[in-house]
Amino acid sequence: MKKLHRRIGLLLNEKLVGEQHDERLFDILHHLNQSIDLVRTREEKDKLARLNLAAGRKSIAAFAFEPALDYLKIGLSLIGKSGWSEQYDITLALHKEAVKASCCAGLFEEMESIALEAAEKARHVLDKSSIFQNRIISRTIQDKLPEAVEITRDILGQLGTDLFEYDSLAKEKKDFDAPMEKLRGKKIMELLELPDMTDPIKLAASEIMFVANIPIYFSRSELLVSINTNEINTLLDYGNNRFGPFFYCSYGSMLCWINGDIDAGYKFGRMGMKLMDRFGANECRSRTIHTYYLLVMDFKHHMREALEPLLECYQEAIGSGDLLYAGLTLSGYHAIAFHAGINLNAMAKEMAAQTDDWKQIKNPSVENHFTILHQVVLNLLGAEGDPCKLIGRSYDERLKVPEHQRQVNCSIQFQYYYYKS
User: Is the pTM value of this prediction over 0.90?
Assistant: First the structure.
């Protein structure tokens, strides 16, 4: 039977070309992988490994993460331990994709094992950047936020970028104001004309800081000035990149909230939104829209104007697989609705209908943003016991608050005490 599978697989692989080959890739591997014991030569093993790499990538693109990992592990077994010295490029590619697939599948222990091997064997810091990204993401999903921050600082240090806490407010303010000093005499909208960033090290650092934004925001907010000013200065010096829209909006929000410079902050936000068109739809889009409508727009417009864009942003984030920001956006949508005076009965009904969505998002930090507010709404409607205690069907402060404190989740603790007051 194995010989028959091999003959069919080889025939399909040889005769099909172009789009036909891509469309039948899984059929081809169904036969070839079942006859893997018959593959003898190094050349045959390498070819089959490359087909499994292609199938792994195709499965990841279709959000089929566990089947993707199966293909990638077959590829790794074919390459073997000697791959790092004899077939470096494909070995690295298989490890990178396997780390991504296992992270997205929630197989974190397996992901960490693959990631640590790849990080040790990688020849250049750029070769391990995406591996560290997924290590950061995995810690964020598991609510191990301090670990995520430390991994961030590790890889950024290797890329030549340091994040640090300020020992004085004067130093912090000086660094925060530095981008505005660079722009003295220029219009903020002129930043749209900056060339595209080409420095690979700076691009990798930008992506790491983008990925690390959530754990830093939740657990080490004192690093937000460092991470934002660092990236804005890099954009001004080296040109725009696909993460620029998010960081421009983020810096704009800080100008509004910290400096009280609403005009400049709003212009940074608008400029970030316009820059999205230049780079098209990408992983930065939902985060940029989220930041602009939640933290910038309402300084110039009524907050109710943010509701429809935020709901659309949530649906777009779900569609693109950015589940963490999908959850944050949905929580932000309800926070805006609450403060804008939307009918509480309507809010309670809508929030109850979205409970199943949180099972898909699977992140306690993000979910707690939602459940705290949901419990507040239920309390105000008189649907629970003591209205002064957040204890009910959605949230139980007796269990959750100690948990937030253990996890050093400053953002959630702030939200809890804000609504309690």
Answer: no
